Amino acid sequence: MEQFFEYIGKMLSLMGEGIGNSLLIFAMTLLFSLPLGLFVSFGRMSKYKIVSMLVKFYISVMRGTPLMLQIIVIYFCPYYLFGVSVAEDARFPIILAFVLNYAAYFAEIYRGGIESISKGQYEAAGVLGLSKPRTFMRIVLPQVIKRILPSVTNEIITLVKDTSLAQILLTEEMFSLAKIIAAKETSIAPLLVAGLFYYIFNLLIAFVMGRVEKKLNYYQ
User: Fold this and answer.
1) How far apart are the two ends of the chain, measured CA to CA in Å?
2) Mean pLDDT score, 179-193
3) What is the DSSP string of the chain?
4) Cα(144)–Cα(88) distance, integer angstroms
5) What is the set of domains in the chain, with CATH numbers?
6) Region 159-187 average pLDDT
């Protein structure tokens, strides 16, 4: 058993840089896509038809094409169209692609949550003298967050696994390093260690989000 844990520790240390890149992509995507998704959802529900249609088109493109393709397009298109490289560090276009992709998914989740709130609550808040922005921030948004948490948790868990797509631009993330080590050692064990890391990380996310969901359950 001791040798088993020593081996896992050794593999994780060899994949240290890849784990760091995976966590960076994960953290930056969440940091920017969650608020961006909220603003995109406002555009999707806009009373101005042209705004609504443009945002709807953006969401359909992001959800209807592979994330891998979006990463390639964001990285190479500026060069082929304008002769300009996006960045020497491939992590920037990767994170940008992740943010734009996940913002589209979060936008639809937000929209479903917002539209599930009764319009009577807006009317009651108006009678009490609350402005629409204040009504949304203090009354509607807390309820929306409570309702959308399970769906958001699913997307976050998917995001953890999607970080492996960074290897498409030769960025060293955990899974690509695990494949390299597995090839050198002619063993599947490094891949299993990587899989174990993904699994434990997602268990941790599910636990944290479950605790948050329970805390927001006002009826228990």
Assistant:
1) 42
2) 75
3) -HHHHHHHHHHHHHTHHHHHHHHHHHHHHHHHHHHHHHHHHHHHT-SSHHHHHHHHHHHHHHHHS-HHHHHHHHHHHHHHHHS--S-SSTHHHHHHHHHHHHHHHHHHHHHHHHHTS-HHHHHHHHHTT--HHHHIIIIIHHHHHHHHHHHHHHHHHHHHHHGGGGGGGT---HHHHHHHHHHHHT-SHHHHHHHHHHHHHHHHHHHHHHHHHHHT-TT-
4) 40
5) 2-115+173-215 (1.10.3720.10)
6) 74
Angle between helices 16-44 and 91-115 (to 10 degrees): 40
Do residues 25 and 95 touch, judged by C-beta distance below 8 A?
yes
| Greater pLDDT, 91 or 199 | 199
pLDDT at 216: 75
Indicate whether 210 pLDDT > 70. Answer: yes
Query: What's the token pair of residue 145?
Result: 């967050």
Instruction: Report the distance separating Cα 181 and Cα 184, nearest Å.
Output: 5
Contact 47, 180 (CB under 8 A): no
**Span 13-40, pLDDT tens digits:** 666 677 788 889 999 999 999 999 999 9
Average pLDDT, the chain: 82
Burial category of 195 from C-beta neighbours within 10 Å (exposed 0-12, middle 13-18, buried 19 and up):
middle
